[in-house]
Design brief:
There is one protein chain. The protein has 371 residues and is an alpha/beta fold. It is 36% helix and 12% strand. The chain contains 13 helices and 10 strands. The strands form 3 sheets. A 5-stranded mixed sheet has the order 1-2-3-4-5. Strands 8-9-10 form a 3-stranded mixed sheet, with no helix packed on it. Helix 7 links the parallel strand 6 and strand 7. Helix 2 runs parallel beside helix 3 and helix 7 runs parallel beside helix 8. The longest helix is centred in the first third of the chain and has 18 residues. The protein is globular, with a radius of gyration of 23 Å. The N and C termini lie far apart (66 Å). The C terminus is likely disordered.
Length: 371
């Protein structure tokens, strides 16, 4: 099998490793395998080369195509082969960065060494200076994690589940606390003391719907992690049943569930909400149809909120007011108190959403039947 066909197989085998939160295809182009779009901070689309180093794996993750018990052709690209394919894509202008992961082909340490060697070849042999996102293998040594962080702009380790029990439902070869959370703490410790190590900051990922964990359990775990670490973001990969895996008869995860988890997770991570401020149904899941922020606002007793004297904490709890518009409100009102709803609209407030929850100089901006 030539390198192009190997790349096609390995890039498609990496479909559970997300490089974007948008609902996009998991399978890459036949002629240019491995190219996937990712959304940057400014909303622009950044094409990344995303691949596994190998689909050989000793882990038994029940949802995964590459699990050790599945019988299929196993292939591997060497560090030099991956670097060569990537540089060809990069110099041709097809991609702007690398997203590299791997199955565990022999030992965790040897797998990490090959991942690190790939980055070394790109940085030192090819002089590549742009973006690299490197997946840390659960159970990796402390030394290999640090060396990976000196080479990659971002590292991540998939926590996969919200608890040890949740992980045990989908895998038996990983220790949740030792192999995953302990390694996440090492990553955080290195980043805390030297922001030049993987300067884009760490991320993680969960598989949603492969076990019986509720949204409350998932978001409560993330709330704890955000409080204790510098984790930049979480990816939610919706479970899709794969033939010849142990979970092939399990129902696929509703994509809307992961969409709503992204919304709720943003409230925890960026807006510093607490899990207890969110609204869950009788099964401890969030609504598939209603906005988590609006639902949260419906049970708060701070509304309607006076825009001209509310603190930042309360302002960002108003539906339709984001972080940037809240800061602008606080800056502007010092000299020019807001008098009209259209003044808020001009600075980016989504007034159609905000009106029921605010007052301007003591005047309600909408009917308050809901209060």
């Amino acid at each position: 099998m030539d390198n192009l066909n190997k790349t096609k197989v390995l890039s498609d085998s990496a479909q559970f490793d997300l490089c974007d939160s948008q609902n996009r295809s998991r399978i890459s182009d036949v002629n240019l395998p491995g190219i996937y779009p990712a959304t940057g901070k400014d909303g622009c689309i950044v094409p990344l080369f995303k691949t596994l180093m190998t689909n050989k794996c000793k882990n038994d993750c029940k949802y995964c195509l590459n699990q050790c018990q599945r019988d299929f052709t196993r292939i591997e690209l060497s560090p030099k082969e991956i670097a060569k394919v990537f540089i060809k894509y990069y110099t041709s202008g097809y991609v702007n960065g690398l997203f590299l992961s791997s199955g565990v082909s022999d030992t965790i340490d040897n797998t990490m060494e090959r991942l690190i060697e790939t980055c070394n070849i790109l940085r030192k042999s090819y002089g590549y200076e742009d973006y690299i996102h490197l997946k840390i293998i659960p159970g990796a040594s402390k030394d290999s994690i640090k060396r990976a962080m000196t080479l990659a702009d971002r590292v991540s380790i998939n926590i996969e589940a919200a608890s040890a029990d949740g992980l045990s439902q989908i895998a038996s070869t990983k220790d949740y606390n030792k192999d995953i959370l302990k390694r996440l703490n090492w990553i955080n410790s290195y980043y805390k003391h030297d922001k030049n190590l993987s300067p884009s900051g760490p991320t993680t990922q969960l598989i949603i719907g492969a076990n019986d964990e509720s949204d409350f359990e998932i978001l409560k775990r993330m709330e704890k992690i955000y409080k204790k670490t510098y984790l930049k973001r979480t990816y939610f990969s919706p479970f899709i049943a794969m033939e010849e895996t142990e979970l092939e008869n399990r129902c696929d995860c509703n994509q809307q569930r992961t969409n709503q988890l992204y919304h709720a997770d943003s409230l925890l991570n960026e807006y510093k909400f607490k899990t207890k401020e969110l609204v869950f149904d009788e099964d401890n899941n969030i609504s598939l149809t209603e906005d988590p922020k609006i639902l949260s606002a419906s049970k708060m007793d701070i509304f309607p909120l006076e825009i001209n004297n509310a603190n930042f904490h309360d302002l960002i709890r108003v539906p339709g007011i984001g972080l940037k518009s809240a800061r602008r409100i606080m800056d502007i009102r010092v000299k020019h108190p807001f008098k009209d709803i259209n003044d808020l609209k001009k600075i980016g407030v989504v007034t159609s959403r905000a009106e029921p929850y605010i007052k301007l100089k003591g005047n309600y901006q909408s009917a308050l039947d809901n209060f």
